[in-house]
Specification:
This protein is an alpha+beta fold. It has four helices and five strands, in the order H-E-H-H-E-E-E-E-H. The chain has a domain at 28-118. The longest helix is centred in the N-terminal third of the chain and has 27 residues, at 2-28. It starts with a helix and ends in a 12-residue tail after the last helix.
Length: 155
């Protein structure tokens, strides 16, 4: 009878440990949320008036741009993303907003527009580029320099 109670306690102890490991494992899979860039709110965009607001007004209302167009310094982009990462998987974009502010030559806002984010799924190539040279084994690399160097001469 005592042996049966002892075995029952051992099995319940193992079950308890197993249960704790499962709970800890599930807690580790909680998503990690991150905000990247400058996610603009609608009230910030409403402070900018097309045809009236200047560059300094835009900076005051929306902050610094995420990037400025490479070929046209009169176009500012505000890019913001909310991402979630689960475990070892790559982060997934949950929410994204891209706003372009276009200025005229005098620095006055000409246009303020939301840009629809279009994503391309670019596959990663796992191929290797062949290189020319010697294909040495580990042992050849390790012992390759033996005998190549002469002792210093007494001249």
């Amino acid at each position: 009878m005592n042996v049966a109670i002892g075995l029952c306690m051992v099995h319940s102890g193992k079950f308890l440990i197993f249960l704790l490991i499962c709970v800890a494992g599930l807690g580790a899979c909680a998503p990690v949320k991150a905000k990247r860039g400058n996610m603009l709110e609608n009230h910030q965009l409403q402070q900018v008036v097309e045809g009236q607001s200047t560059r300094s007004d835009v900076l005051r209302a929306m902050g610094s741009p995420t990037t400025v167009s490479t070929f046209n310094q009169n176009v500012w982009y505000y890019i913001g993303q909310d991402t979630e990462k689960r475990g070892i998987l790559d982060a997934e974009v949950v929410n994204e907003r891209i706003v372009a502010v276009v200025f005229n030559g005098d620095g006055i806002v000409e246009r303020l527009e939301d840009i629809e984010p279009g994503r391309e799924d670019v596959p990663i190539a796992r191929a290797k580029t062949p290189t020319h040279g010697n294909d040495l084994t580990f042992t050849q690399q390790l012992l390759g320099n033996l005998g190549r160097f002469n002792p210093p001469s007494d001249k």
